[in-house]
Amino acid sequence: MRKLSILGATGSIGVSTLDVVARHPERFEVVALSGHRQIRKLAGQCLSCAPRYAVVADDAAAGELRALLAGRVGTEVLHGIEALEFIASLPEVDTVMAAIVGAAGLRPTLASARSGKRILLANKEALVMAGGVFMHEVHAHGATLLPIDSEHNAVFQCMPVKGRAGVRRILLTASGGPFRSSPLDALDHVTPEQACAHPNWDMGRKISVDSATMMNKGLEVIEAHWLFDTPAESIDVVIHPQSIVHSMVEYVDGSVLAQMGNPDMRTPIAHALDWPHRIDSGVSALDLAAAADLVFERPDFARFPCLALAFEALRAAGGAPTVLNAANEVAVSAFLERRLGFRAIADVIAATLETLPDQPARTLDEVFAADAAARAVAQRIVEART
Ligand code: NDP
Ligand code: MG
Description:
Elements: E1 2-7, H1 12-22, E2 28-34, H2 39-49, E3 53-56, H3 59-69, E4 76-79, H4 81-88, E5 95-98, H5 106-114, E6 118-121, H6 124-140, E7 144-147, H7 150-158, E8 167-174, H8 192-196, H9 205-213, H10 215-228, E9 235-239, E10 245-251, E11 256-260, H11 266-273, H12 288-291, H13 305-315, H14 320-336, H15 344-355, H16 364-385
Parallel strand pairs: 1-2, 1-5, 2-3, 3-4, 5-6, 6-7, 8-9
Antiparallel strand pairs: 8-10, 10-11
Helix pairs in contact: 2-3, 4-5, 5-6, 6-10, 6-14, 9-14, 10-13, 14-15, 14-16, 15-16
């Protein structure tokens, strides 16, 4: 029986995880859940899984959750970052789903690495922000890192069982998001609602905006670099609007292995939850005849400057990914709050990268310092534009 902590249980990935887990009560036990602001939703999850611990943002949210659970379930309610680190490293837990969005997920995900857990990594921002430090902790403490991001999970499935012998390239597919073919000047007037209406995937708001700018693919290129120890030159992006081929691995003999399926995150979640065993995920079978045409195109870097910025940040081989990630988080929040235009997201990130020196962040303190400096600069740039 696998014993789970689910960080970010109230989010899109968290809910899909609980859906898969509920299909296999004999295989999984939920020991801890975390949410942040959606207390009623978390209360509902606690009532159905009866975890030992639940973690929320602050004291007020904890009080609210305790009141909702009182007399109904014996879950202990905790709050704050130390509590997240605590449930990420509990001795009785063997598997941690890291599905908090953004840089906020770094500390708890690192705590799970340091306690040698099996980590199901959805929180790509943690890896982009602190790739070197994070991978060092994973290796030093014998943690197992299993990718949840659909592309990386696909690559993981297509890679050789051991080593990288014979691998030539990783091909990450991208849907191109909702604005793949809209007129360029229409992008000036995009609203958060339009940006969050992804054609194939139903996701949280931040990653939906990242998909619309293609920064999501940029973050994924950096994520693939760290997960598969592969240089930027050997990672290519292919536009594939149907999101049926989730990614591919090309070998030196010309073979290209692809992983396919319907676009539903329960497939990679189920794959990682019980890897190397296969379990039912609730996802319907792929009907290739119904999918009909599978289209592939080269990405348009002029339309999607965020993708180019991410490749440049990775090639710079210093601390630029930390700055890129922080500036992106600031710009995306400003866009979601209607304080910044859609196309200005890339401008803010580019200007932040130009303003700050590219210093490698070798320790966690250096990572947090670079992240804070980039947030301050990006915030100033956003304010100067409004
Ligand atoms: P959501 O916004 O749907 O969920 C985010 C989760 O994190 C929620 O549980 C939220 O709590 C919690 N949270 C938000 N802010 C904080 C904070 N400051 N401290 C602690 N917890 C916080 O996001 P997604 O589920 O879409 O994405 C989660 C991660 O998975 C992201 O890193 C994303 O890039 C990655 N991912 C997502 C995919 C998808 O299909 N959704 C696909 C591939 C990767 P609450 O809602 O209660 O406030
Ligand atoms: Mg993805």
